[in-house]
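[job 4417] fold queue: 2 targets
>>> target A
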Amino acid sequence: MFDLVNGLPIHPLVVHGVVVLLPLAVLGTIAIAVRPAWRLTYGGLVVACAAVATALLPIATSSGEALEKHVGDPGEHAELGDQLIWFAIPLLVLTLALVVLERRKAAGKPAVGPSALPMAVAGLAVVAALAAGVQVYRVGDSGARAAWGDQVASSTGD
């Protein structure tokens, strides 16, 4: 299903969405975790970036499997790519929780849980963001090496 669009592999097209949106969600999550005043203003946008990136991951994985049939096994890249969803989901959930807690507070609704809950969620969101950022880098690096490693090495005389 997720193989070709107009004769071109869909994988690089979808991956660019993930490569842009997930790091934006990482940076946005860190920003709203550190600056609570930004949660109301930018929280929805950060959650949207994380949600769209997370939704694109299964498409990227499926299209990567389809591309693998044309170009061969990408090795480590496929394994790391399969794991990325398990970094994106906690990022999305914690970012959403951070925004929901702030919106409840702004609406004057009673606090949910202990008073330290927003700070704990913010801390966990930063950890999830950093982990997701590292994993995005690892997946991208392994993908670039799988796609371009031989061509670049042979052109430089190595």
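>>> target B
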Amino acid sequence: MHIVIVGDEGGRAAGLELELNQALADFGLAWDVRWTASADAALADDAAVDVLVCELDAGAQRATAVLSQLRRQRPEVVRILLLENDQDAEALQVLDCAHRLLRKPLDAGELIEAVESVIELRELLDNAELNQAIGRIGSLPPPPKLYIDLTQLMRDPDTNTAEVGNLLSQDPVLAAKVLRLCNSAYFSAGRVVTDIRAAVTRLGLQNIQRLVLATEAFAGTDEIDGVDREAMQARALRTSRLAGQLLGGPSAELAATAGLLAEVGKLLPGVRFATDDGTELNPDGPHYAEAGAYLLGLWGLPMPIVEAVANHQQPARMRMSGFWVAGAVHVASALVADTPVDEAYLRAVGQIDKLPKWRSMGEQLVEAA
């Protein structure tokens, strides 16, 4: 694994190199890490580079130019952007070019975790054509920033509904969607709510998280043939809810999030999938499930979610794991979309007897929506 870090980290390069080398040794990782003040060497055609970490100001070249050039020339290289705490607004200009965002000062553990997650992802989706296809897409959906901010906020046990409401209020479109869902027949219980903090209380933080993630993941102005974004988002919310119910226990939230994102790959141009009328689009492109999983991995979502999205149409590939996240998402998405459930897989993992009950749960959920 060849990692090139562009920039001097405000003069910290020497100390940080020692820290990173020590961390690599502690983890038993034989990675080659190089530091350079300019990206020119890393962009050379013969340069050995698997991961490029670039400061927003990369020497004489702006990070936008560096990462864009690397995407064109070598789309398989993982591109990580290094930010100051006050550079969020500027970072929005280069999100299409970067796979991951890390904060300055660079933390050795965070870098190792980010790179290892990409290694795991590529082992899962070891497909050179897929890597190239996703890397060449001009405008990937950006990481769901508000969802990430909300997740970080909720890690604090002292967080209250007022703080969550204030965060949601920063996005008027999202706040309107939260209120709309809160006042739907499914949640309203006959009482109209007009305050975002009251809506957070009524919906609950987990539902809020999923709604935020769905809104950001399925956002976009570009029309894609065969894709009805609004219908997809509605289907995603139902699949999410059902997947969490089917799995239950401590893994329910993983299943709910994976169910929410199972179809997100259809929003990437050039992917292969069947439309509602059975027409197969882009038959020579990468399958939407694997393309979507690759995107989620680049966003940094947990591997069980990435694996479930990649395999939700072919759960038998995960049968050695038993009936877990991928199985729950497969069943939930099939029942919500009224497509065939893989009964052979359910027999193999000893869950076929539960299918009638699950069908009933799915029918009730669709009727209630």
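[job 4417] complete. Note on B: The mean pLDDT is 79.
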